[in-house]
Amino acid sequence: MSTQNSRFPDVLIIGGGVIGCSIAYHLTKRGCRNVVVVERNTIGSGSTAKAAGGFRQQFSYETNVRLAMYSINFFEHFHERLELPPDAEGVDFHQIGYLFLLSTPEAFTTFERSAALQQRLGLPVEVLTPEQVGSRWPWLSVHDLVGATYCPTDGYGRPHNVMQAFATQAQRLGASFVEGAEVSAITRKAARIMTVETNQGSFSPGSVIICAGPWSGELGRLAGVEIPVQPLRRMCFVTDPFDAIPQDAPMTIEMPNTFHFRPEGAGFMLGTSDQDEPYGFHTTMRWEWLERVMEDAAKRVPVLEQAKIHHGWAGLYETSPDHNAILGPIPGVENLLVATGFSGHGVMQSPATGMIMSEFILDGKAHTLDVSDLGIERFSTGRLHPENHVI
Ligand SMILES: Cc1cc2nc3c(=O)[nH]c(=O)nc-3n(C[C@H](O)[C@H](O)[C@H](O)COP(=O)(O)OP(=O)(O)OC[C@H]3O[C@@H](n4cnc5c(N)ncnc54)[C@H](O)[C@@H]3O)c2cc1C
Questions:
Q1: What average pLDDT does the chain have?
Q2: Cβ of 106: how many Cβ atoms within 10 Å?
Q3: Sign (positive/negative) of CA torsion 42, 47, 50, 53?
Q4: Ligand 1 center to residue 48 CA distance, Å?
Q5: Which residues line the pocket of ligand 1, CB cutoff 6 A?
Q6: pLDDT at 327 over 60
Q7: 71 domain-assigned
Q8: Are residues 360 and 252 in the same domain?
Q9: Most Cβ neighbours (<10 Å): which of 160, 254, 313, 366?
Q10: Do 107 and 137 share a domain, yes or no?
């Protein structure tokens, strides 16, 4: 995707992943047409290309539940909200629900408390006994579970389609996308960004938004600010076609060990997060980890032992210290903002994030949702808000 671009954009967005594309869409939709997105590769080629597509609202931190509820509603009405033609690829949202299986008393207590919060906010979340789980989803081994929570309006969709729809509509409304444009320098005059240098020339923007996923820390350093985001490898494995479990089985996640699986095509996608994975830009596939995943699978879903793995991939989470997004202006630099740190939840939070960031730019503050607790200043004041439901 390449379009005519202004060297003096009102807003320059660094990073053409699902977040940058959503912000570009929401800005242009609200009439801010002089928007340029610079992307060093092709749009959607970063973490967005590696996402598993899970969309859920079962979080422990209230702001995350609210961000997710806004976004799930957006995904439910994706075609209308984005004014897509009927034959356009949509989000392909499979609302099969998310089932959290809780195998320790501590995990159960945490999720039970979160379920009360989610119910208060209007989500149809159920707290289930192991017996209820076993009778509804008989392929699961439940003998050692303490309980479970289930939300039927969670599910999964297609990250690439979400990103592409935002980008296409943003471009239609006037945004420019410059691919192959790597930001190499950001010059400041006192408290203001003056220029952003790329290998495709220099830009003098009104405002700059850093949304470079796992690379956001590097962009921050170019601008002389610290953005505390760490890259963290995560892997997905996909089976051959497999019909021993129904295709409307929920996205199922066991906590605390993080083994998870959901339908994918005619097979299933599965994984377990390696809690000892060190931070770093490591994206090679660790095939030896599959043995651990299949052990977890055999224990929780015995029939999955018969499944054959067809392929897998590795990508990077953009992890913040409290596993929450970092959204809004960067204090001390009057025209610099950030939208990153989603810690594995960026696709599902992209609709709300695009809306909120457009409000920061056009209205001076976010008002659709209160995200004042997600500002970057929380890391210097020490007011962190840990999100507990992370895999
Ligand atoms: C295995 C895996 C599974 C996941 N599963 C889920 C899931 O189920 N649900 C969910 O919501 N999320 C999931 N995620 C997380 C999700 O992928 C991210 O949160 C989301 O894609 C972040 O989008 P982004 O636009 O911020 O970053 P990215 O998509 O990484 O986009 C950032 C862009 O910035 C560009 N860039 C970097 N440096 C520069 C530079 N110097 N100049 C110009 N451009 C630059 C990059 O090329 C990149 O395209 C998963 C991630 C992984 C790895």
A1: 97
A2: 12
A3: negative
A4: 4
A5: 14-20, 38-41, 45-48, 50-54, 182-183, 211-215, 219, 234, 236, 315-318, 340, 342, 344-348
A6: yes
A7: no
A8: no
A9: 254
A10: yes
Q: In 3D, which of 76, 70, 82, 21 has the Cα closest to residue 49?
A: 21
Nearest CA to ligand 1 atom 15: 344
d(CA 282, CA 87): 38
Task: For tokens 């598993």, name the residue.
Answer: 52
If you measure from the C-alpha of residue 106 to the centroid of ligand 1, how many angstroms do you get, rounded to a whole number? 31
- Rounded mean pLDDT, 48-55: 97
What is the spatial distance between Cα 52 and Cα 159, in angstroms, rounded to a whole number? 8
Among 317, 334, 353, the domain-final residue is 317
Expressed in angstroms and rounded, the spacing between residue 234 Cα and the centre of ligand 1 is 12
User: Domain of 171?
Assistant: 11-51+159-229+322-381
Among 21, 38, 42, 48, residue to substitute to test ligand 1 (most atoms within 8 Å of Cβ): 48
Please give the pLDDT value at position 382: 92
Residue 16 domain-assigned?
Answer: yes
